[in-house]
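Why do we bother with a discrete structure alphabet at all? Because it lets us treat a fold like text: something you can write down, compare, and reason about line by line. To make this less abstract, here is a complete entry for Multicopper oxidase. Read it the way you would read a sentence in a foreign language you are learning: slowly, and without expecting to understand everything at once.
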Amino acid sequence: MDRSRIVFPRDTHEVTDMSGRISRRSFLRAVALGGGLGAVSAGSASAFPLDIDPLRPLMFSSPPIEPYRDRLPILPTMSGTRIDVQASSTMHSFHADLAPSPALAYSGADYLGATIEAHVDQPTTIAFRNAVTVHPFAVDVDPSLHGLSERDRTQVPTAMHLHGGVNPPQFDGHPELVFRPGEEYLHQLPNRQDAAGLWYHDHAMGVTRLNIYAGLVGLYLLRDDFDTGRADNPLGLPAGEFEVPLVLQEKMFTADGRQRIRSTPTVPQGSWEGGAVGDVGVVNGKVWPELDVARGLYRLRLVNAGSLSVWNLYFGNRMRFWVIGGDSGLLDAPVAVTRVRLSPAERVDLLVDFGALEPGSTVELCNDEPPPFQAALIGERTMPRFCRFRVGTARGFTGAPPSTLRGGPGQPELLPPIPRPQVFRDVTLSQPSDVRLPPSIMSLNNLRYSTEDIELPRQGTVEQWNIINATNDPHPVHLHLANFRVLGRQVIETLRFALATPQPPLGIRWTPSADAFTISPRAPAEPWERGFKDTVLANANSITRIIVRFPTAESLGFDPDAVFGHGSHDAHGHGAGGGPRSLQGYVWHCHILDHEDHDMMLRYRTVA
């Protein structure tokens, strides 16, 4: 079917019942009466809602969008000891052929936020203010999720989290420490950690997926005396115009150009969806943009700021490039690769030599990762590209990739050896087995967020976490506060594991060892994840093993187990009687945003 011949009129894209929600029964009956997907022809397309491809009737589709119509935006930067960050309601144009869409943004932008540059050991104060007036996805708020109510559609909660930051708990962006429109908060960030490409984003309980997707995302580049960001940096890395941050996202759009958070009509509007996918690539706020590059070496700082999908990224000509760093800083030396796999919240620091290409040529940043299992079941396809680079005639940065990044003169120290664990801890990722629409809850350890049965690692202890993914989908797992090293992964026979250790009802801890059910040797960490990390991809039906050293109050310069959150700002707290409560500690969670919101997030404390 030629999708380019379909005309998408305004506001005719859903069949609804009297409540305004789509009728799942009517829609699925229409699909069945159509005689199956193979029986649908172009001539019968009018029988379907006009933003649904008859060949994929369980998925919404964006209208046809021409790639490379827009220039890649270069994100503005901010620096200083005090930085004002305001979350606001905006309108943003994602593509030259789409009308502007309601969005959210930070720092006076109309989408995303400025890149904040800070320096190691020089504290930064973020003066955060919630100035959101209208939420683009107010109708998509699900008040049945933990901590939410009808109030959250109009009095939009926000919580700014510096992802990867090693910060006191009261400044970490705890999901229960939320701020309503008109409220302000000072985040005191010590920046006592290695130089790295961090990012800041919303983390409010139950609406993180809505706020991030709407635009509350920005980069935070932490510099030091080695990686200065200036042209004369001691590491010999490209800087200035040759260092380009790329915020990668996936989206769907309605016929009139609005962002759509739902990906399937089988989930009613206003109900949580188990994983919202996208069918177009967005980079720095533009759909499939193009960047003019000089003939030379570039440093690309990538973050997967998407809601769901893992991407296997490569260049269309399969050219070689170099990984120089990941979530929490530089590797010991550049690693030559032809692809890099990036899950939601992970970052990667790349060197790419466009000088090897002819002037006037182009090369695309592509993806060939198959969609997650459950998304593929309802018709999701691989989103194939993100952006294109057009090579000019000018000479750019002419240096070669450095041979080392650590351990030499004018370089930081080598990464330390991975320490031996003192404690072994099994944790599980699972989904209850009941089949229903909307999809059932996602869980860690088979527990809800409200549980008091939390992890209590002791400060100063080295632990091995065996992350047992007993689902058919990959899950990126993020620990706040603590960085870690990846040991590797092993495939498990999940069915035999589940039969031998039956999963109890939701709310009862389920963390059996899966070591007896492994069916592969341990595969080592990928080349791009051999430094310190804060997020790790737990593959489907596997054990992912990481080594975590939980820092002490003395090494941090603050008490990571301090009590905080008194007052009106912890209105999401669900203590006795449902009122505000004091908070303590941090959280760990899946960074698939829908999963994080319901209920794949748990609290944890580091005890002295």
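What the structure line is telling us, in plain words: The first strand starts at residue 77 and ends at 79. The mean pLDDT is 89.
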